[in-house]
């Protein structure tokens, strides 16, 4: 039974093995051994039999004893193969590959991936340090210390650093819970909280990174124009009050040029940015070391940076050298440059400013030193409005009466209104950048160890630097200098530069290159983040940004990033841009903490982080801190950021691609659903909470397509997306062969008709059993259906084996037994679609009260836009002894108490004689029922009976002309039976395998032919049986209708006339559905009664209540 040599075909290989799997030869005795996969990685087709003789083909089983799993090895890899693939795994993701390596290959050749060798220090610690330390430290921290005071600044720094530390702990837990590709926070949030949250927060993080680029570029230009080349300004202010506006315009012009240059560098290639990264990091480290060296030097010899005070006011000293009003040359007293700034002429008798004339000038040291005790003056805050003068506390001063000209004089002012909340927003960007390590996880030797260690150490280091700088700045620098944002009082020197050793230029040049590098890093990272989001396919309108150059460079994403970055540059103020990006980063960190907390609390089996020092309380504390900082820094920016994230979330939910990433929100939904189901009692809800929970019974055609799609439309209109909807269908056959295809068909139909609910497909040996199982088992716990919706079986007259009739009537009986409501839609294909808008009336014919469902259904329908313009009319029937006027009044009051708007009409139906038409219709119905019973005979008997019936009918027609019309129907059905004999015989034969049908059919199946040896006794018995059958057929034409059936038919005919006269033009007629007969022998008559009752009405909904009240007058 073995295969001949080379007989194993590769055509049947599974398609998913695309990469070759290397197998070490050292583990195999024979070096010529070949694995079960070919050199191309395609497994050969395995034989179900193993021959000991064919050693060449089966050698790979030797020593493994894996023959039992031969079938599985075609589709599932062996453990050794799986481990070998994992050993060669590399987590390269979109936008992280060094694109320059692929430029010459044009994407055609496969690159050899080098094993990542970066450790914790180089791969995580230094990149985080470079991203955290930056522009705010050099340009704004001294001003924040002077404005908020040492204590409040320390509180700001502590809050922000605690926020990032708690976020880093949560991020470490997520990053060590499996392999994290280099997608940074976006990847972690989207895979932990789902595509909606991931897309929303990912885009917020992208916007934050982009605005960070704007902030770094503005910082670069501020350093360039203020401290390096002040004369390079294009716009120069002629008056002091215009200087701020001129500076903003200069920032816009130079910022735009700088942005274009940086975007061009990024476009040319990221390798240049990466090569310069070490240079930029060196600048940051040298600047910080120079600052600490300067602090130490102030203890030995404080630097000389005098500050000129007029009274207690700090003066800008770019236009004068000496802090004197007058000076003596020889014996003459002459005015100084300072005098000319406050007086209208250089002469001593000139008219001068009142405050200048009343107060003396004095000079103090701007950097008194670490041991000077100046920290006691800098402990407390000095907040103030825009234009507030920078003044030294404790300095003697005489106030002036007229302060109107102060804005034109060389005083140092507050350029913006300051507050604790504003400073939080400005400072927070200085602690961002903690994601730099997780972004580089693809380059790390051991990411699960390096990311937590490196990130937490970097945050601890930078937190120490910030906190120590706050204390040292307050202890070394004079308060008026700290509050001087641009260093105007120290000859336009960078304030932190005045403290540095050996020269302020160390800090100026270092901070300049640091800002340049950070801006380039932002312009490099943001487009790749956007490209990763676009390639995930969760935001449809971003698809175009997933494309780029041939080497994968995100060109379109870079253009969009540059455009958004330009918006920040046009704002032109570092202090205005910083709170914007604070919002986006805080929101990102908030969701990182939320993701960790959700995963921890849900205890999902896959949540097994290697980083153990986390707890859900820390994550919630970090989340609360992020939310608090958002609203502390700027409540309106926080609301805008949350609105943007909310809109993106809803857009992805509405239009985005379906993604299943095993995220925590799905797990949270599962836990919430389980908790709610356990809490939800299986007992029926209170009347006030009752709503139709529908089980919709759908029929499928031969191609497994949905027959009556408008039934789904009607379900949508009735439910309006609320409550439980289960769409059920039954397949004849086995579950394995058809269920999946049928479920897909149902789901596509539900999607087309906008029906929200669950699909339930049951496979059964026959339809009757299947529908019975559906009614019994659909739903779970307290979330079970209480109503069944189905279409009227229009073919019940034409099917000779009466399957559809029996299915329908048994469904009615089972829903009644289960105390469930039943809704039957006749002419359902004529019901309106969801796009139609109907005007007219919904007529309710209330014959019997069975819980009030008849009155509740029109109200629910009118909530949908299809039926909204329809009015409700309520009809009820009055008998001979009823007071119809009083009935109408009572009914109107009842509807008023139910809060339902409807017109009420009482229809009087008097006792009338039973018409000949009713009598004849009943007779035809009973004859037809009897004829259908006779049609269950065998083929041999049927051939004999047809001739007998024809002869009898001819003689009967001659004798009784009145019965001619009634006889036509049985004759027609007899002929139909004659034509369909083969199919009918097959159905009778199949009944042996259908349990439910056999139980419901009292007459057992009869074989097509009787093969037997005839004896005299058997011949006599056969003739007697035929004679009895002939007598039964002959009695068919002499029978009289049952009086009970005549009365029922009379009711159906009269009620149909009344409904037809009143409601023929109605858009929908709702009608009480009478119950089926207790005796199963009258099932055919029951269907006929319902058919007569609904005859001539375009849209009818038969309603049979569950027997319990579903509507109440009480609140």
From TrEMBL:
- Which portions of the chain have biased composition (kind: Low complexity)? 1-14
Looking at the UniProt entry, the stretches that span the membrane are: 119-141, 153-176, 197-218, 251-270, 277-296, 416-436, 456-482, 502-520, 556-574, 580-602, 614-638
The chain positions of domain Amino acid permease/ SLC12A read: 124-296, 417-695
How does this protein lie in the membrane? Multi-pass membrane protein
Instruction: Name the source's superkingdom.
Output: Eukaryota
Task: Give the UniProt keywords, A-Z.
Answer: Cell membrane, Chloride, Glycoprotein, Ion transport, Membrane, Phosphoprotein, Potassium, Potassium transport, Symport, Transmembrane, Transmembrane helix, Transport
UniProt name for this protein: Solute carrier family 12 member 7
Organismal lineage: Eukaryota, Metazoa, Chordata, Craniata, Vertebrata
Q: Which gene encodes it?
A: SLC12A7
């Amino acid at each position: 039974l073995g295969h001949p040599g080379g007989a194993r075909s590769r055509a049947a290989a599974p398609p998913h093995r695309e990469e070759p799997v290397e197998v070490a030869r050292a583990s195999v005795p024979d070096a010529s051994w070949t694995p079960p996969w070919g050199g191309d990685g395609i497994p050969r087709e395995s034989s179900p039999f193993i021959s000991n003789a064919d050693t060449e083909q089966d050698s790979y089983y030797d020593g493994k004893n894996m023959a039992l799993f031969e079938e599985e090895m075609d589709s599932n890899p062996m453990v050794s193969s799986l481990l070998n693939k994992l050993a060669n795994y590399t987590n390269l993701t979109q936008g992280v590959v060094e694109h320059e390596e692929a430029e010459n290959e044009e994407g055609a050749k496969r690159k050899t991936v080098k094993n990542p060798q970066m450790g914790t220090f180089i791969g995580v610690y230094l990149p985080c340090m470079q991203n955290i330390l930056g522009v705010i430290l050099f340009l704004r921290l001294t001003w924040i210390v002077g404005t908020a005071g040492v204590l409040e600044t320390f509180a700001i720094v502590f809050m922000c650093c605690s926020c990032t530390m708690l976020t880093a702990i949560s991020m470490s837990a997520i990053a060590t819970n499996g392999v994290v590709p280099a997608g940074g926070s976006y990847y972690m949030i989207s895979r932990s909280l789902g595509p909606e949250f991931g897309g929303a927060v990912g885009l917020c993080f992208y916007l934050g990174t982009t605005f960070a680029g704007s902030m770094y570029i503005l910082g670069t230009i501020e350093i360039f124009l203020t401290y390096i080349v002040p004369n390079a300004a294009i716009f120069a202010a002629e008056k002091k009050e215009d200087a701020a506006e001129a500076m903003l315009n200069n920032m816009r012009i130079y910022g735009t040029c700088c942005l274009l240059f940086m975007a061009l560098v990024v476009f040319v290639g990221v390798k240049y940015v990466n090569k310069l990264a070490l240079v930029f990091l060196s600048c940051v480290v040298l600047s910080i070391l120079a600052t600490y060296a300067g602090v130490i030097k102030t203890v030995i010899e404080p630097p000389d940076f005098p500050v000129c005070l007029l009274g207690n006011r700090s003066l800008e000293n770019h236009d004068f050298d000496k802090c004197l009003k007058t000076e003596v040359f020889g014996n003459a007293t002459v005015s100084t440059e300072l005098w000319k700034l406050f007086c209208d002429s250089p002469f001593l008798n000139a008219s001068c400013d009142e405050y200048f004339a009343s107060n003396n000038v004095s000079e103090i040291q701007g950097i008194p030193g670490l041991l000077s005790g100046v920290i006691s003056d800098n402990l407390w805050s000095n907040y103030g409005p825009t234009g507030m003068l920078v003044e030294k506390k404790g300095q003697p001063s005489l106030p002036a009466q007229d302060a109107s000209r102060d804005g034109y004089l060389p005083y140092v002012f507050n350029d913006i209104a300051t507050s604790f909340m504003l400073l939080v927003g400005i400072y927070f960007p200085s602690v961002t950048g903690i994601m730099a390590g997780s972004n580089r996880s693809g380059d790390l030797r051991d990411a699960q160890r390096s990311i937590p260690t490196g990130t937490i150490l970097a945050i601890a280091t930078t937190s120490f630097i910030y906190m120590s700088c706050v204390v040292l700045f307050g202890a070394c620098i004079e308060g008026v200098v700290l509050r001087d944002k641009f260093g105007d009082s120290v000859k336009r020197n960078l304030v932190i530069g005045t403290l540095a050793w050996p020269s302020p230029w160390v800090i100026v040049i270092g901070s300049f290159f640091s800002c340049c590098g950070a801006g380039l890093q932002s312009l490099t990272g943001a487009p790749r983040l956007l490209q990763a989001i676009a390639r995930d396919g969760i935001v449809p309108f971003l698809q175009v940004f997933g494309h780029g150059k041939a080497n994968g460079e995100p060109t379109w994403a870079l253009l969009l990033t540059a455009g958004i970055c330009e918006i920040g540059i046009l704002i032109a103020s570092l202090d205005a841009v910083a709170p914007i990006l604070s919002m986006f980063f805080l929101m990102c960190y908030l969701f990182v903490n939320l993701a960790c907390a959700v995963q921890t609390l849900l205890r999902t089996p896959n949540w097994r982080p290697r980083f153990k020092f986390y707890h859900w309380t820390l994550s919630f504390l970090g989340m609360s801190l992020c939310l608090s900082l958002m609203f502390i820094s700027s409540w309106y920016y926080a609301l805008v950021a949350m609105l943007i994230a909310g809109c993106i979330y809803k857009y992805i939910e509405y239009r985005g691609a379906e993604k299943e990433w095993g995220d925590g929100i799905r797990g949270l939904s599962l836990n919430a659903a389980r908790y709610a189901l356990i809490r939800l009692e299986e007992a029926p809800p209170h009347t006030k909470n009752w709503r139709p929970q529908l089980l919709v019974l759908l029929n499928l055609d031969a191609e497994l397509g949905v027959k009556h799609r408008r039934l789904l439309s009607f379900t949508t209109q009735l439910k309006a997306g609320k409550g439980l909807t289960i769409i059920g269908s039954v397949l004849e056959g086995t579950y394995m062969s058809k269920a999946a295809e049928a479920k897909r068909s149902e789901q596509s139909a539900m999607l087309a008709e906008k029906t929200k609910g669950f699909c339930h497909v049951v496979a059964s040996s026959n339809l009757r059993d299947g529908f019975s199982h559906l009614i019994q088992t659909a739903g779970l716990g307290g979330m079970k259906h209480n109503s069944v919706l189905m279409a009227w079986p229009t073919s019940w007259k034409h099917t000779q084996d009466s399957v559809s009739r029996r299915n329908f009537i048994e469904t009615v009986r089972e829903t009644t037994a289960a105390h469930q409501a039943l809704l039957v839609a006749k002419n359902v294909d004529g019901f309106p679609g969801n796009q139609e808008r109907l005007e007219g009336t919904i007529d309710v014919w209330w014959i019997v009260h069975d819980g009030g469902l008849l009155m509740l259904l029109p109200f629910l329908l009118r909530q949908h836009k299809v039926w909204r313009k329809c009015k409700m009319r309520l009809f009820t029937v009055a008998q001979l002894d009823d007071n119809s006027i009083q009935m109408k009044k009572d009914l109107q009051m009842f509807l008023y108490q139910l809060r339902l708007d409807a017109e009420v009409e009482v229809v009087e139906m008097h006792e009338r004689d039973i018409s000949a038409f009713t009598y004849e219709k009943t007779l035809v119905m009973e004859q037809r029922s009897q004829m259908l019973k006779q049609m269950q005979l065998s083929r041999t008997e049927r051939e004999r009976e047809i001739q007998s019936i024809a002869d009898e009918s001819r003689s009967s027609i001659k004798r009784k002309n009145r019965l001619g019309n009634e006889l036509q129907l049985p004759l027609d059905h007899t002929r139909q039976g004659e034509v369909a004999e083969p199919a009918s015989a097959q159905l009778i034969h199949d009944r042996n395998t259908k349990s439910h049908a056999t139980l419901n059919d009292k007459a057992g199946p009869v074989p097509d032919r009787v093969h037997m040896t005839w004896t005299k006794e058997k011949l006599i018995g056969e003739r007697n049986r035929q004679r009895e059958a002939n007598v039964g057929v002959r009695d068919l034409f002499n029978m009289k209708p049952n009086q009970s059936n005549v009365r029922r038919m009379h009711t159906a005919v009269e009620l149909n006339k009344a409904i037809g006269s009143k409601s023929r033009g109605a858009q929908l007629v709702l009608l009480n559905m009478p119950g089926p007969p207790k005796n199963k022998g009258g099932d055919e008559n029951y269907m006929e009664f319902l058919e007569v009752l609904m005859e001539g009405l375009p849209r009818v909904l038969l309603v049979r209540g569950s027997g319990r009240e579903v509507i109440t007058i009480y609140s």
